[in-house]
User: Fold this.
Amino acid sequence: MNDTAPHSDKDTLPKAYEFAEVEQRWYARWLDDKTFSARMDEGKPAFSIVIPPPNVTGVLHIGHALNNTLQDLLVRYHRMRGDNTLWVPGTDHAGIATQNVVERQLATENLSRHDLGRDRFIERVWAWREEKGGTIINQLKRMGASCDWDRERFTMDEGLSRAVREVFVRLYKEGLIYKGDYIVNWCPRCHTALADDEVEHDPTDGKLYHIRYPYADGSGHVVVATTRPETMLGDTAVAVHPDDERYQHLREIGISLPLTGRTIPVVFDHHVQREFGTGALKVTPAHDRDDYEIGLRHDLPRLKVMDDKGVMNEAAGSYAGLDRFACRQKIVSDLQEQGFLERIEDYQHAVGKCYRCSTVVEPTTSKQWFVSVRPLADKAVAAVQEGRIRLYPNTWYRTFYSWMENIRDWCISRQIWWGHRIPAWTCEGCRQLVVDVEEPDVCPFCGSTRLRQEDDVLDTWFSSALWPFSTLGWPAQTKELATFYPTSVLITSFDILFFWVARMMMMGLHFMDEVPFRDVYLHALVRDKFGKKMSKSTGNVIDPLVMIGQYGTDAFRFTLTAFAAQGREIRMDEERIDGYRRFINKLWNAARFAQMHLAEADPGITARAADPKGLALAHRWILSRVNTTIKDVRAALDGYNFNEVASANYQFVWHEFCDWYLEWIKADLFSDDPAVRDQARGVLLTVLEQVLKLMHPITPFVTEEIWSRLPGERTSIMVEPFPEANPAWDDPAAESAMDLVMGVISGLRTIRTEAEVHPSAKIEALILCPDPARRALLEEHAAAIGAMVRAGKLAIEAGGTVPDDAGHALVQDVELVVPLKGLIDVAGELEKLAREQAKLDKELARIVAKLGNDQFMANAPAAVVAKERDKEAEVRARLAKALESSQRLNKLC
Assistant:
């Protein structure tokens, strides 16, 4: 960024911080000056992050806002540290989601994708992407994201497509990709297979149907239970435990399957729990994952009775053509009519739904492409066990190991059109399969030119799994790849630990022979202030763009950072955003105050703070405190304790810098002594500069604006060195001394407040301090103490008595005494307190009566009862406070 000239009086900070104008102006300036661009300077450490690519269909939600704020915080921190810093942005093509969006668009034109054909449909999706696909990127820019936008990538870019084909072909040739029949999760709405982790299992109230299956010889029956009676049409066996004596005689008899006229065998399998129910299971290998495995063990036929749209097919006999749920109703009715239905009971169970459209999925057999993941998963587990990849928070290790131990082969084919088409061709001459990076012209086996490419595309997560190295140019060996791989840290939500994170580990280790990232920070899910999931239907969604428009980006970012404790849940409250907006304004007002005294100052005055020896106590204290804050912030950033970063900054800026230091040095800034003035100015500018740099990664806009208006020629704060602790500033003695002085001031202020002394009234104060050294310290700063508590008279003595009509407090071994007689209207205050007590007594009686009402307690919701109990506790506390005040005032009568 070009240097800016020293600001003149006309550049004084405005009274109010107009965040909208500041944010727009500075972001445009940063982009113009290429401040976000990555450098690759020799000899400097590298810090790199790849953005978890949001779906190209997406709009900014609270999870994106949190995720990208934390990434930006680290990126800005490392950029200020002087590291070669790269934040790679980009979006995911989101196969199913994007295809659904465009198909809905076509439906408004009374068209389907089949009307257009594959090529024209793909053209239509690309056109949609060009028009609408940049929405979320622009919204991330409003969040202040300092990505290197010149390196923005898309998972369907030509370079990334090349990487996808290269990986597929290599895995295929290594025998780690195969095609075969398998039981998969099928979405009848999206018409595609889904991986296990693309199925969301929600507890659902349903029915459990108990059905009588007659023995084939008519000598009896066995009862089986199912939640999906329509699938019985595809039963090819009944399974029982091998040791279950009740059913041994059925080995030769078999079962007569109701409604079908078919006889099916009884198989004996250890999977069956003989103590559960009747100990008999219906086996539908084509429509249930466990049944599929039983079918493999016993060589059972797989009878599909449902098509890809969830409609019963010809194998369903008279039920053909019925939707699966309509078929369920018809089956149950027929079973009941024919005497096969034993009973129906209410039953809550986990129902699998498509993560994209929430349609109930159907397990079904299908020919699909799979990755054999065990060899890849073992490498990832080893990398984590050896500490080459660290997980934050560490509570996720057990979950990670458990999932990886039970991992299944990954179904990577999807029956849609938008996505990376599988690079495999079938020769129509010799039926051989040709897998290659480039489209073949002829069959290498027979020379035929009649080659037909697979219709399926790859699972979106397949291309996303390559993101850390494909975005850096792989398979080409680029300078970016050499500089920034492995990336430094991945920040993402814990709910895609297995969708994405584990797969990136597997692919990175296999193709780069190195981990894709050193650290993984799994942030919590954001819920409302009551811990409920945010949803439009509930009406509790916090929209980031609304919050930015109302409170400003910096306040919103600070709130997200303050809430980002390591855990599984963040409870977001809009009131806290408003609170941190006030904090931003507090910083702004502090800077305005400082600027008034620094406008004509030489920036070289900061040299006075380099060696704190000889500085006044308050200056030595604030330098020591900012030094501690620097250490705390750096440690929190390095340990991904983001909430502690916000807390350390907030505590220092609000309570120490603004509330104490600025108040303390006002007299110095207006002193007639130039040496006193310059000492205060020098330390003030030094500390303000440290504050702005410490705050910049969280609140980039307000800090840049203030920084640009401080004395001297200044480059962007973004490229200023991040503060480092200065051993010369550590001063425990100054901190201890100021703790005593501030404690005395706070104690005297508390006496004023509790006695309700009018703010303009001056008090007489007596400080009793037996220790000579501390007494001398207080005497040295008596003028400042008196000014800050509005004392007309201040005495400091070794000892003395405390009159009954005085307010008093104890700070360490120092007693504070303030005579109150004559300072307040005792009779008037007692009258006010009496009215308040009467009002509170009446309110308390009402609440107690309500809680004592048996009918209310029996019928009221628990939340309402709890609210009344909270009111009772609050009223009792206020009564106790009023009583205490009355007793204190009566002593003054």
